[in-house]
Design goal:
The protein is an alpha/beta fold and 551 residues long. The chain is built from 16 helices and 20 strands. The radius of gyration is 24 Å and the shape is globular. The structure holds flavin-adenine dinucleotide and NADP nicotinamide-adenine-dinucleotide phosphate (NAP).
């Protein structure tokens, strides 16, 4: 392996590692690779770093894991010096942080922006990947790391007439860089997931009228956002070693919070309500941590869902609207729970209407209106908060060809198959960060990103020390892991929801619960054990070895 930035004597540009994507995953991957002396090139289709926070600039966008935890832990200097202004930082601040990290660790010189990776083809003779960019260049690499993001492929809905609409159409996941001013406009908002729920209150304040088109009512808890004081920041900074250890090793979701020690049905009604009320007052995602069986037992789950439905009824003045806003189609938490600021109260504003598009789906979008049940809802601008082709979407858009010319899309036609979410058999030296089959989107993503990056970096270092050239998931190990991921999910309430975790938001996408729900602590231990046992379940080979089938 070369130690420089390009490997000499190979003609085309050549690197030890090509990394696709410059979000938090790609940036940290580059930093680790450099530290190990690998030559690496990062390709990013956007014009800057930050990934999610570069693209999602919609009004109200902010994190829903507290910033003191939704931040890198790999550098103590970084976490001690960066001042988060609010409990949940707004998008612009998180993007500033990403840029600060890029500058502080001098990452930009190895990142090529405005460049999409279109294809990656494995050459079984040379054992290298040929990676082709949107600029028409092909570079060679021994390893490819897909840091392409789980929520990076914004989905425009297939609604009749959408292209005939005369006003501007915005997607929350691909928002313009220039400020968008809705003053005096009638805005239609389609989609009531986290993005729709964050943006509705802000758009309602600005627009002359907002019509929210709701297909599925969602559970949302208040963020209780606010400025962070020095004391609050200090409480984290002084205890970071323990907070980060807990998030990595103990918490299921990578968030430091009290862990519940009992089930919801172990308490009487009054105690339960008091616990839910306390969590509601504190705000945030950890509402679901009031009890340890809310994701497992439907009767227990109903107690939490009833509490939130009750809160919606308390907040929303119009009983008809309140009823429509109360989620009834899925257990609470089985679709990503939303965290909002004044979402439900927004429907008390005189300039906000709610249209049920579950009972009567949108018939058509005309030049100036959204037609539902024969009524034209006139709008000047449309906001699509319709989500993403999640977890697999950005990977699927790259033409990836492994052994025997098989494409990853062919292999994943009935659902993604990986070993540990890290590699897929038949695709040597191709790694995925927070891929399907890992805790990923069920966790504080930065915790999961750092764990994957560290594991991959250690694996590459180990290969180099042993003079090995390829690493590949073994098919048996992969099948067992896929079965395990499914088995764990089947023991929970999660598969009961038509969620993007299941691929249910994309027509025709296989319905498989994609993330690993066993928890980040358990998962980390499994990955560490696999590594300690010489990368059990992976086939490692020298360059001159005949191919031992990874099957
Ligand atoms: P991304 O940030 O998605 O970056 C991937 C990058 O890869 C993108 O910049 C993309 O342009 C690039 N890319 C993709 N394909 C190609 C290609 N073929 N060629 C070149 N470049 C390519 N998670 C949390 O834990 N807490 C939160 O509070 C939270 N809030 C979120 C809010 C929003 C609005 C969204 C959409 C997601 C949120 N998430 C949150 C999830 C978030 O995606 C992750 O936390 C994290 O930012 C993902 O980082 P990443 O580097 O893995 O992927
Ligand atoms: P989402 O959760 O997938 O929500 C998309 C919404 O659009 C849903 O209400 C969906 O309805 C609706 N929709 C999709 N296609 C439609 C169609 N053809 N017609 C009508 N309605 C349609 O997407 P998101 O809100 O962008 O969030 C995705 C994920 O990103 C979140 O779950 C979260 O992990 C992350 N995120 C986090 C934050 C945060 O608070 N930090 C903010 C935004 C996003 P159905 O439910 O019926 O499919």
């Amino acid at each position: 392996m070369s130690q420089g930035h390009t490997s000499p004597g190979r003609g085309a540009e050549s690197y030890d590692v090509v990394v696709v994507g410059a979000g938090f995953a790609g940036m940290y991957m580059l930093h680790r690779l450099r530290g190990l002396g690998f030559s690496a090139r990062v390709y990013e289709q956007g014009s800057g770093v930050g990934g999610t926070w570069y693209w999602n600039r919609y009004p109200g966008a902010r994190c829903d894991v507290e910033s003191m935890q939704y931040s890198y832990s790999f550098s103590d200097e970084l976490q001690q010096e960066w001042d988060w202004s609010e409990r949940y930082a707004p998008q612009a601040e998180i993007l500033r942080y990403a840029n600060h990290v890029a500058d502080r660790f001098d990452l930009r010189r190895d990142i090529q922006f405005d460049t999409r990776i279109e294809s990656a083809v494995f050459d079984e003779v040379t054992g290298r990947w040929a990676v082709t960019t949107s600029r028409g260049d092909t570079v060679q690499a021994q390893f490819v790391v897909l840091a392409t993001g789980c929520l990076s492929n914004a989905r425009k809905p297939d609604i009749k007439g959408l292209e005939t609409f005369k006003g501007p159409v915005y997607h929350t996941g691909n928002w313009p860089h220039e400020p968008v001013d809705f003053t005096g406009l009638r805005v239609g908002l389609i989609g009531t997931g986290s993005s729709g729920i964050q943006s509705a209150p802000i758009i309602a304040e600005q627009a002359s009228h907002l019509t929210v088109f709701q297909r599925t009512a969602n559970f949302s808890v208040p963020a209780r956002n606010g400025a962070l004081s020095d004391e609050e920041r200090g409480a984290f900074r002084n205890n970071y070693p323990e907070i980060r250890r807990f998030a990595r090793e103990v918490a299921r979701n990578g968030i430091y919070t009290e862990q519940p020690d009992r089930g919801a049905l172990d308490d009487d009604e009054e105690t339960r309500r008091a616990k839910y009320a306390a969590r509601w007052e504190r705000g945030g995602l950890t509402f679901m941590y009031a009890y340890n069986n809310l994701g497992l037992d439907r009767t227990a789950n109903d107690t939490a869902a009833d509490f939130v439905r009750g809160k919606i009824a308390e907040i929303v003045n119009d009983p008809g609207k309140a009823k429509l806003l109360q989620p009834n189609s899925h257990p609470i938490g089985t679709k990503r729970i939303c965290v909002d600021t004044d979402y439900f109260a927004t429907f008390n504003r005189p300039n906000v209407a709610l249209v049920d598009i579950k009972t009567h789906p949108i018939e058509e979008i005309t030049a100036s209106a959204v037609r539902v049940a024969g009524t034209d809802h006139e709008v000047d601008a449309l906001v699509l908060a319709t989500g993403f082709d999640a977890m697999t979407g950005s990977v699927a858009r790259i033409d990836i060809r492994g052994r025997g010319g098989q494409t990853l899309n062919q292999k994943w036609a009935e659902g993604p198959k990986t070993y540990l979410g890290l590699m897929s058999a038949g695709f040597p030296n191709l790694f995925i960060i927070t891929g399907p089959g890992s805790p990923s989107v069920l966790s504080n993503m930065i915790v999961s990103i750092e764990q994957h990056v560290d594991w991959i970096a250690d694996a590459l270092g180990s290969l180099r020390r042993q003079g090995l050239a390829t690493m590949e998931a073994d098919r048996d190990a992969e099948e067992k892991w896929v079965a395990h991921v499914n088995e764990v999910a089947a023991g929970t309430l999660y598969p009961q929801a038509n969620s993007w975790y299941m691929g249910a938001n994309v027509p025709g996408k296989p319905r498989i619960f994609m993330p690993y729900i066993g928890g980040v602590g358990v998962y980390r231990r499994i990955c560490d054990e696999v590594a300690a046992k010489g990368y059990e379940g992976f086939v490692l080979q020298r360059a001159d070895q005949p191919r031992a089938a990874a099957s």
